[in-house]
Design a protein that fits this description.
The chain is α+β, with helices and mostly antiparallel strands and 150 residues long. The chain has five helices and five strands; from the N terminus they run H-E-H-E-H-H-E-H-E-E. Strands 1-4-5-2-3 form a five-stranded mixed sheet. The two termini are 16 Å apart. 29% of the residues are buried.
Length: 150
């Protein structure tokens, strides 16, 4: 379950920091959202050793940080290449947890199948024309977005 909050600009939204930079294949761009204050999550620094309770806590934290956000407000981040689209059939929280927990091989599979990718120009234009509200979560420096089926 996600808690909807369509007015992020008035809230402080914490960022999650990944343990390593496996997804820097997209490019190394720091997220500098002017209207968001960062409070990084301290993650287990030993790759693939996160306990079940730590994993559940991470997923809970990510779930609480998801919110709907208008695509129009993400244009600056899109222009810098920081926005990643997650296919609607995937669990946005699970993909964010995968990134934050540095599960590179699982993430690479999603990249190869096209279920996770940088937002294309054509998709960005379509969302702009539709005035789309997207589910979002930040895994610094990336912003993951997902359009849900109505």
């Amino acid at each position: 379950m996600r808690m909807e909050n369509s007015i992020l600009s008035s809230k402080k939204i914490p960022f999650l920091r990944p343990k390593t930079g496996f997804f820097y294949a997209f490019g190394q761009v720091e997220a500098k959202l002017q209207h968001v204050t960062a409070h990084p999550v301290q993650l287990n620094m030993h790759k693939n050793t996160m306990t079940t309770s730590e994993s559940a806590l991470l997923r809970t934290k990510i779930n609480q940080e998801t919110a709907t956000y208008p695509w129009q407000e993400l244009q600056r981040q899109f222009a810098t290449g920081q926005v990643i689209a997650v296919a609607s059939e995937l669990d946005l929280v699970e993909v964010a947890a995968m990134m934050a927990d540095d599960r590179a091989s699982e993430f690479a599979t999603l990249l190869q199948t096209g279920q996770v990718a940088k937002v294309s120009d054509s998709q960005a234009q379509l969302w702009l024309e539709q005035n789309a509200q997207l589910w979002t979560v930040v895994v610094k420096p990336w912003i993951l977005v997902q359009q849900r089926a109505h």
